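Researcher: Let's try something more involved. This one mixes different molecule types, so please make sure each is placed in the same coordinate frame as the others.
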Amino acid sequence: MNRKLLYCLSLLLVALCLPPQWYPPALRLQLSEWFGAAPWRPLPATITAGTGRPQMFCPQATAGWKNRQVVENVEIAAVDTCQADNPWLIAAAVRGVNNVSEATLRKSGLTADAVVKGADLDGDGDPDEIHIRLEVAELNGSSAEQQEAVTRYALAPGIHPGLWVFAPKLAGMTTENFVSDRARPDLRLPSPALRVEQGDRVSITLENTHYMPHTLHLHGADHGFVLADGQGNDGVPFSSEQPVLPGASRTYFLQPRQTGTMFYHCHVQPHVHVMMGLQGLFVIEPNRPHNWLQTINPGAGKVRVSSAAVREEYGQEYDLHYLDLDRELSEGVQKYTDPRLVTRYMHREYDITDASSDYFTLNGLSFPYTFRESLVVADRGERIKLRVLNGGAKGLALHTHGHKFIATHRDGAALPPASRSPRDVIWLATSQRAELDLLTTNDGLHAYGPGIWPFHDHQNRGITTDGIGPGGNISAIVYRQYLGEDGWPKTRGISWDNYFTAEYYRKQIPVWQSYAADLLGEPGADPRMVTRLLGLALGIGLLLGLLATRKRP
Amino acid sequence: MIRVPLLLFAGMTALAQPQAQPMSEHRHEPGDAGGMVMNANTDTLPRGCSAISRDYEFTVAVGRPYAEGIPGMIFGMSDHELRVQPCSRISVTLVNEDAVRHQWMVHGLPVYLYPQGMFHIEANAGHSRRGTFIAPADDRTYLVHCGMPQHMENGMKGQLVVGEGSGDLWSVKEVGGSFTRSAYLPAGYPWLLLPALLLGAGLALMTRRFD
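Model: All components are placed in one shared frame. Result:
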């Protein structure tokens, strides 16, 4: 008797508590026709969904690094943004570590063989024997006994994908200090932009400090297929040579006859290795007298010591290296600690034909970090050279506000003058390079006047970080009058506080919460519905319990 | 590429330079293409030591050859564990047998004596470097590793046991077990579970029959 009552009660509970939104629509409409509208009740109130403590927008470079200065007789141009490269590293990269004092070498952070410059073969007052050494470093890798990524490098707040980079040889510790897991500032994405002179005898030693085989391929730069001693020189494991195994090294050689903006990358399983970050700009400058080049531009960006040929025509020069990354690929180095399992995941389980890119970087960073160091800072009436590389898996539709670029070179070769028309979208297929003239002459064509003018990939995924915008490779051309004392642009729109939180890019903060929360903020939950749901669950539980304990006849 | 003139005055300039930059708060010995030593200490006694208790001379060879044949290990050391007495003076010669750089770093040393608590030897490809430091007075186990990215994770992890030490570290070859994230189950392992599950269920049913 009691059980029958309980059956009835539980069925009644289920019927009453089932949210009307879950009824079949036809039934719900029929019911409303029969019984009319329910009484007015406002929808759940807007709540504050996620919050995060914003990071500092504009951390300053070490004191004095940004200034224009002369180190080892090298004139190093000023940087106007928040962050700047170490001027001693730049001086050592220009003179060669063998031609600077012990003090400069130590302050540069380079090893005593990182960039060695030898004889002046053509007697024009600059060295023509250049020996560059590169190592391979894993950023945001895993360590078995800890949760967080090691040799940590953030693309944007809270974004730490696994990366592989060619790194200049940096002496000593790889982290900021001994209590930190964060990579030191010059150990970063992208691999450094390299600069040599036309006709230089260039040796590049790949010292494979990584746990996988790698090679070096000089894409677009004039190099022989084999060297005189029979060693392969094209970096391709299936056609020219054995890969360089962990702990081993190989010296590649070239004496480029042509100038231009080229590309270097690993050629072992390139669909994985190139996309992990083993790629960089390789610039061959015209031969000029007294042409001491900045052989290494760490993290690309503004070139603080430009070549003689660039200085003849331009006031400033920027290296802009674009790269998109797939989180599913970069996770491989974080999921496993056994290098054999990492290898299996990255080269067999991961399938690039099913891939999609999640992170879009300019010079190794995504918005808003791009604004710390990858702004193009201009005055009116300047002529600025931009060297652009699209190292990513997708094409790049490079668009700028407020200006039109003129492409002068593509893939290192000069374009005929007649074809150099101003454009506001420059298309770069995967691995293509373009050299662009940016004229800040306010004539309504080349430039529309001073401002903070964003430039970015106009394929719209490129302006997001894992689908959250603004993110990705957004940077800006900022006129000096719009730049604050500290190097941060005087932006006029909404607050950037949310963009400087990891929570925003983890999709936890409604995009307009900071300024239109009343309008389109996050709706709260309906407590009455929660109560009904609990009743429903109780009813179902009762029913199931009764069914399970019924007596068999 | 001639380094001789530089080496001649290197020692003097290293002493004369003000130590202003972040990297130079450590005591560098003049570095060269062969490597360097940071925070060497041959004579300052740690607190609690009244004299050098003993002198040790170790040679640690490192590189690929010391990881050969060991599954999942890429780089190795000839000795992953060094045992010393408290207050002893330890000289380590790091012999790098690879064609890439390696390091030998000790962590957690007293910061009043070793900036950031570390002692560091770095040897370039095919070179060796010797450095000396003095062990503290208390029994403790210190982490020793190569600081190049992923070298510790791929085998170059060791421990320095002072006195009785304070317990072994994980993932030190022939000392502590691997703290791996992977269970190393064979392919198709769920099928292995099926017979065991059936057996368990069968046993449970049999007990019911005896009720």
